[in-house]
């Protein structure tokens, strides 16, 4: 990878107060910092190339304060207003710059949990670890048999006083689908502390623990596209000190909602913006006479239908941004659910279209770059990985049920 060297000092956060100056500084920093060949360098390199690159990228983002800019000032952030976060995403999206995806849980889920429910000591210990040491976190909620119906999870945590007087929770069970769990330093874990609670949601607690705690074993899960982005985790008499319990015992369900709220915000805004940039690029190439397939009336019609849908998704995203600005906690708004449903289904349709459009040549597995996004021109891989968005953050079937019951008032 050819790393650019420049004497110029970049300070995007010093431009707050002027969105266009901020935009220009982010753009200039990206041009000076992100190697033009970054994608080629990690293509075919597998998980290790991806992890090494992401660690480097995280450090570069930290140097100019952009990785944690959305955090509160008290914890080393800049409380970056939403409109600036959107501008930053736009500039990243335009040049297809990578997002620090490996750090998603560290940068979004962990702080969303700790700001709402952590003690000052827990915040200090764990957020400093992310900021200063780039510690990687992953999320251990799902289990075999507890995905959509997460509250039926069975991993058990029992409180125990040790002979030396210290209090620990002893955990036994299994987790699955922990994204990037093979590389993580720490785990956010949901476990059942009261199996006799009257409601299944009531007996769950929320813990934090290092991934190298004795008794914790992780195994990679190989996916259809060859990646092993997830792992399954086996917990066998794993001891977690009581000070690593977040909030109160048996109140983990409500805390988990704060964690999951991180998934409904800017992550999807970024994805939807990127999709629109890609489709606009195709349209510009078509207008410039660069696309042979554009002469095919049927393909042209299919593309333009998808383009119109992308514009509609973007309009929904704009509505969501507006709602977040006026009501940061979003209350009962169905808009994030609508955005997730419409974006994920459009992504599936568009990646199916590109696979068909480019014929047999596109329908083969080619070396890929992990974490490069879902619209990479590697059509087979884009097509396969597009499925993930219809499952993560609540499956589309379950979200449609939620909309039907809570918004349309249809019977259960
Ligand atoms: C990209 C990605 C990243 C993920 N990362 C993590 C992570 O880091 N940590 C973690 O803990 N988990 C993670 N997950 C797991 C994710 O939370 C679960 O896959 C999800 O909750 C669905 O659960 P499941 O896979 O067990 O499917 P199930 O819940 O078993 O569902 C199977 C099928 O049945 C349908 N279904 C289920 N219930 C209903 C219903 N009531 N009505 C209608 N249809 C229904 C579903 O829509 C689905 O089609 C990730 C998943 C993906 C795809």
Which features would summarize this protein structure in a list?
single chain; 412 residues; alpha+beta; Butyryl-CoA Dehydrogenase, subunit A, domain 2; Butyryl-CoA Dehydrogenase, subunit A, domain 3; 3 domains; 4-stranded mixed beta sheet; 44% helix; 14% strand; binds flavin-adenine dinucleotide
Task: Explain what the structure shows.
With 412 residues, the protein is of the alpha+beta class. It has 3 domains: 12-99, no CATH class; 135-249, Butyryl-CoA Dehydrogenase, subunit A, domain 2 (Beta Barrel); 265-407, Butyryl-CoA Dehydrogenase, subunit A, domain 3 (Up-down Bundle). Helices cover 44% and strands 14% of the residues. The chain has helices at residues 19-33, 38-42, 46-63, 82-94, 104-117, 120-133, 252-261, 266-287, 297-326, 335-357, 379-385, 396-407, and strands at 137-140, 156-161, 167-179, 186-192, 204-210, 216-221, 230-241, 245-246. Strands 1-4-5-8 form a 4-stranded mixed sheet. A 4-stranded antiparallel sheet has the order 2-3-7-6, with no helix packed on it. A hairpin with an 8-residue loop joins strand 6 and strand 7 (230-241). Helix 4 (82-94) packs parallel to helix 8. It is globular and about 75 Å long. The model has no long low-confidence stretch (mean pLDDT 92). The structure holds flavin-adenine dinucleotide. The site of flavin-adenine dinucleotide (FAD) has 17 residues, from strand 1, strand 3 and helix 12.
């Amino acid at each position: 990878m050819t790393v650019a060297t420049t004497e110029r000092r970049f300070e995007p956060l010093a431009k707050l107060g002027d969105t266009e100056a901020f935009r220009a500084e982010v753009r200039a920093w990206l041009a000076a910092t992100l190697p033009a060949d970054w994608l080629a360098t990690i293509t075919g390199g597998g998980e290790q190339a991806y992890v090494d690159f992401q660690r480097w990228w995280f450090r570069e983002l930290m140097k100019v304060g952009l990785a944690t800019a959305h955090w509160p000032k008290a914890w080393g952030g800049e409380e970056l207003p939403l409109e600036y976060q959107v501008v930053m995403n736009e500039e990243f999206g335009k040049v297809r710059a990578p997002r620090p995806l490996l750090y998603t849980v560290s940068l979004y889920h962990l702080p969303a949990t700790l700001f709402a429910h952590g003690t000052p000591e827990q915040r200090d210990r764990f957020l400093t670890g992310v900021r200063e040491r780039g510690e990687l976190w992953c999320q251990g909620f799902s289990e075999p048999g507890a995905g959509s119906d997460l509250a039926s999870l069975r991993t058990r945590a029992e409180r125990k006083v040790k002979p030396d007087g210290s209090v620990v929770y002893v955990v036994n069970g299994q987790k699955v689908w922990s994204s990037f769990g093979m590389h993580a330093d720490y785990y956010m874990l949901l476990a059942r502390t009261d199996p006799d609670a009257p409601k299944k949601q009531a007996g769950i607690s929320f813990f934090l623990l290092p991934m190298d705690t004795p008794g914790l074993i992780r195994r990679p899960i190989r996916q259809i596209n060859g990646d092993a982005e997830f792992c399954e985790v086996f917990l066998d008499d794993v001891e977690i000190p009581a000070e690593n319990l977040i909030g109160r015992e048996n109140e983990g369900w409500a805390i988990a909602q704060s964690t999951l709220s991180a998934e409904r915000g800017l992550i999807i805004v970024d994805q939807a913006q990127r999709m629109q940039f890609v489709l606009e690029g195709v349209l510009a190439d078509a207008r410039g006479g660069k696309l042979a397939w554009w002469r095919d009336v049927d393909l042209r019609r299919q593309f333009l239908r998808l383009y119109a849908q992308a514009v509609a998704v973007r309009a929904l995203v704009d509505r969501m941004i507006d709602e977040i600005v006026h009501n940061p906690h979003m209350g009962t708004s169905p808009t994030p659910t609508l955005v997730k449903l419409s974006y994920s289904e459009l992504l599936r349709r568009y990646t199916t279209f590109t696979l068909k459009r480019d014929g047999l040549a596109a329908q083969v597995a080619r070396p890929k770059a992990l974490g490069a996004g879902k619209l990479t021109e590697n059509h087979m891989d884009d097509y396969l990985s597009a499925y993930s968005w219809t499952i993560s953050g609540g499956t589309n079937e379950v979200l449609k049920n939620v909309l039907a019951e809570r918004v349309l008032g249809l019977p259960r």
